[in-house]
Specification:
four-stranded mixed beta sheet, 4 strands, 5 helices, 133 residues, single chain, Rossmann fold, globular, alpha+beta, binds S-adenosylmethionine
Length: 133
């Protein structure tokens, strides 16, 4: 399915028959200009909808090669530690750098943007959250 997550995520997920166990947001468009930030995919209504629908134990994986975008996404999910834990607090074998970014992609599959960014020598900033049980 292809859809604008800002418009259709809640509708799609609420009619999904199985438990929602994984949401990935992978190198979303950065929309650098301040007046275009409203086009960024990670916004409060989407975060609220993910949290509302995510099954206990379900995970949210975020990554971006743009630090500003990664921080923006991270700040929005870090503000929900009542509902979410970061994966490194659950599994000490998952390692982070000093700033709390995952050292490896735990998905085991790289996206096109990720491959391109790493080929160019860029860092990819990653966070993985799990809904508290
Ligand atoms: C830079 S591309 C990255 C593509 C792929 N995820 C990767 O990492 O190679 C950004 C992607 O975000 C998608 N995207 C941006 N805003 C979106 C939205 N509101 N809903 C769904 N997808 C969106 C675009 O369609 C595009 O495929």
């Amino acid at each position: 399915m292809f859809a604008n997550a800002l418009v259709s995520f809640e509708q799609m997920v609420s009619s999904y028959p199985g438990p929602l166990m994984l949401v990935t947001i992978l190198c979303p468009d950065p929309h650098f200009k301040k007046r275009h930030h409203k086009r960024r995919v990670v916004q409060k209504p989407l975060v609220d909808s993910i949290l509302k629908n995510l099954h206990p134990g379900g995970q949210v994986f975020l990554q971006s090669d743009v630090l500003e975008v990664a921080l923006d996404m991270r700040n929005q999910f870090d503000s929900h530690f009542d509902v979410l834990e970061h994966i490194t607090d659950i599994d000490p074998s998952v390692l982070c750098d000093n700033e709390g970014w995952l050292l490896i992609n735990p998905m085991g599959v790289r996206t096109e943007r990720e491959i391109h960014a790493e080929f160019e020598g860029a860092k990819v900033y990653r966070r993985m959250y799990q809904r508290r049980i």
